[in-house]
C-alpha cells in the first residue's frame, strides 16, 4: 500500500501527492460509512493517546470521535496542568512513557517542532495536531478534503488565505499542500502578519503561484475559495499589537453581497470576530461542514497510520 511507509505525520511535507490523494480517497470511503450509519470495528483493541498541551475543541474531539467510530479506544489529557508536565516532566519523558500505553499518539503542544522532537523518541506513530505557530497537517488534509468535495478538484484553483498568516499554523501547512497541487494562492494579510519566508521558500520547487496583498476587497472577486483565519492572540508578545491588528478583516452580509456566487468561505475555527454569524446560513459558508470532515479524514489517517 502506498502509505505503508508513513511512520509519523509531523509536517504536511512528510506526504507525497500520491499519499495525500490516497488519504482523500480513504476519507471519502469513511464519509460514506459515517453517512450510512454503519459501525466499524477495524481499530478494535487499538489505543489512541491524545496529548493536548494547548487548548482544542475540534481537533481533539474529532480525533477521539474518529477512533471511537473505528471501534478503538482513547486515552489522554485535554489540559496539560493535570499531567506530569505540571511537575516539570520533559516532553520526551512523557512520550517515552505514553508509547508503552498506546498504539498511536496525537499531540498538540505550544512549542514549534515539538512533534518532530517527540517522533525522534517514539517507537509508535506520532501525529502533529498543532505545534505552536508552525504546522497543523491533519487540518490541511481535512481542508483539502472539503475543497475536493465542494469543487471536485484540489488543483488549478484560486485560493485566498486571509488573516494571521504569520502565526496561523493551519495556513502554513495548507499553503504547502495547495502549492504542491498547482493552485494559485493569494496571501491576504496586514504587512506585520505576512506568511513567513521559510514557508514560502519551502515551496520554491512546487507548482503553485503565490501573490501577496493587504486588500481583501480588491481580490475577493477573483477567488474560488476564501480561507479566513483568526488573529492568533496567544502568539503575540504584546497585547497592544494584537488589539491594533484584530478586526482588520471581517466577513459580513455587505461583503458577501459583492462576493462571487460560487465562492466558498472556509475557516479552521474557532472564529473570534472575522466572520459575522449573520452569514452562517449563506450556502457559500462551509466552515461547519469543514469541521465535520475532521471525523472521516482523521478516521482515514488513523487507519492508514495504524497500518490496518
Ligand atoms: C486551529 C489551530 O488550532 O491552529 N484550530 C483548529 O485546529 N481547528 C485554528 C486556530 O486556532 O485559529
Give the topology, please:
Layout: H1 17-35, E1 47-52, H2 58-69, E2 73-77, H3 91-98, E3 104-109, H4 114-120, E4 126-131, H5 137-151, E5 158-162, H6 169-180, E6 184-188, H7 197-202, E7 209-213, H8 216-219, E8 225-228, H9 239-245, H10 253-258, E9 264-266, H11 287-292, H12 294-305
Parallel strand pairs: 1-2, 1-3, 3-4, 5-6, 5-8, 6-7, 8-9
Helix pairs in contact: 1-5, 1-12, 2-12, 5-6, 5-12
This protein binds N-carbamoyl-L-aspartate.
How does this structure look, described?
With 308 residues, the chain is of the alpha/beta class. It has two domains: 2-135 and 294-305, Rossmann fold (3-Layer(aba) Sandwich), CATH 3.40.50.1370; 137-291, Rossmann fold. The protein contains twelve helices and nine strands. It has helices at residues 17-35, 58-69, 91-98, 114-120, 137-151, 169-180, 197-202, 216-219, 239-245, 253-258, 287-292, 294-305, and strands spanning 47-52, 73-77, 104-109, 126-131, 158-162, 184-188, 209-213, 225-228, 264-266. The strands form two sheets. A five-stranded parallel β-sheet has the order 7-6-5-8-9, with helices on one face. β5 (158-162), α6 (169-180) and β6 form a beta-alpha-beta unit. The protein is globular, with a radius of gyration of 19 Å. The model has no long low-confidence stretch (mean pLDDT 96). N-carbamoyl-L-aspartate binds at residues 58-59, 130, 136, 139, 169-170, 229-230, 268-269. The site of N-carbamoyl-L-aspartate has 11 residues, from α2 and α6.
Share of helical residues: 25-40%
Would you tell me the overall average pLDDT?
96
What's the number of helices?
Answer: 12
Rg estimate, integer Å: 19 Å
CATH fold-level topology of the largest domain: Rossmann fold
Oligomeric composition of the shown chains = single chain
Tally of separate domains: 2
**What are the low-pLDDT stretches, counting only 5+ consecutive residues below 50?**
none
Bound molecules: N-carbamoyl-L-aspartate
What structural class do helix, strand and pairing data support?
alpha/beta
CATH class category name of the largest domain: Alpha Beta
Shape type: globular
Q: In CATH, what is the homologous superfamily of the largest domain? A: Aspartate/ornithine carbamoyltransferase
* Known CATH architecture of the largest domain: 3-Layer(aba) Sandwich
Amount of beta strand: 5-15%
The main sheet comes to: 5 strands, parallel
Q: List the secondary-structure elements in sequence, H or E.
A: HEHEHEHEHEHEHEHEHHEHH
- Give the strand line-up of the largest sheet: 7-6-5-8-9
- Please report the total strand number as a whole number: 9
Amino acid at each position: 500500500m502506498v502509505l505503508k511507509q508513513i511512520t509519523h505525520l509531523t509536517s504536511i511535507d512528510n506526504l507525497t501527492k500520491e499519499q495525500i490523494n490516497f488519504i482523500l480517497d480513504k476519507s471519502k470511503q469513511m464519509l460514506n460509512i459515517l453517512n450510512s450509519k454503519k459501525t466499524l470495528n477495524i481499530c478494535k483493541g487499538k489505543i489512541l493517546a491524545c496529548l493536548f498541551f494547548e487548548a482544542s475543541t475540534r481537533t481533539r474531539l474529532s480525533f477521539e470521535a474518529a477512533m471511537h467510530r473505528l471501534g478503538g479506544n482513547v486515552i489522554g489529557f485535554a489540559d496539560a496542568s493535570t499531567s506530569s508536565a505540571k511537575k516539570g516532566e520533559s516532553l520526551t519523558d512523557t512520550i517515552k512513557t505514553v508509547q508503552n500505553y498506546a498504539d498511536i499518539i496525537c499531540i498538540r503542544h505550544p512549542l514549534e517542532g515539538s512533534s518532530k522532537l517527540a517522533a525522534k523518541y517514539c517507537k509508535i506513530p506520532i501525529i502533529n495536531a498543532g505545534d505552536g505557530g508552525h504546522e497543523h497537517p491533519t487540518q490541511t488534509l481535512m481542508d483539502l478534503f472539503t475543497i475536493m468535495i465542494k469543487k471536485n478538484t484540489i488543483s488549478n484553483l484560486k485560493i485566498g488565505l486571509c488573516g494571521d498568516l504569520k502565526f496561523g499554523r493551519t495556513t502554513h501547512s495548507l499553503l504547502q499542500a495547495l502549492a504542491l497541487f498547482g493552485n494559485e494562492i493569494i496571501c491576504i494579510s496586514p504587512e506585520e502578519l505576512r506568511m513567513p519566508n521559510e514557508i514560502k521558500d519551502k515551496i520554491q520547487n512546487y507548482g503553485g503561484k503565490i501573490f501577496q496583498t493587504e486588500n481583501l476587497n480588491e481580490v475577493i472577486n477573483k477567488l474560488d475559495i476564501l480561507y479566513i483565519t483568526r488573529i492568533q492572540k496567544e502568539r503575540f508578545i504584546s497585547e497592544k499589537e494584537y488589539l491594533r491588528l484584530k478586526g482588520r478583516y471581517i466577513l459580513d452580509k455587505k461583503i458577501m453581497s459583492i462576493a462571487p456566487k460560487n465562492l466558498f468561505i472556509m475557516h479552521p475555527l474557532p472564529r473570534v470576530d472575522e466572520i459575522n454569524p449573520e452569514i452562517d446560513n449563506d450556502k457559500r459558508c462551509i466552515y461547519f461542514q469543514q469541521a465535520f470532515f475532521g471525523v472521516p479524514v482523521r478516521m482515514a489517517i488513523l487507519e492508514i497510520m495504524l497500518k490496518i
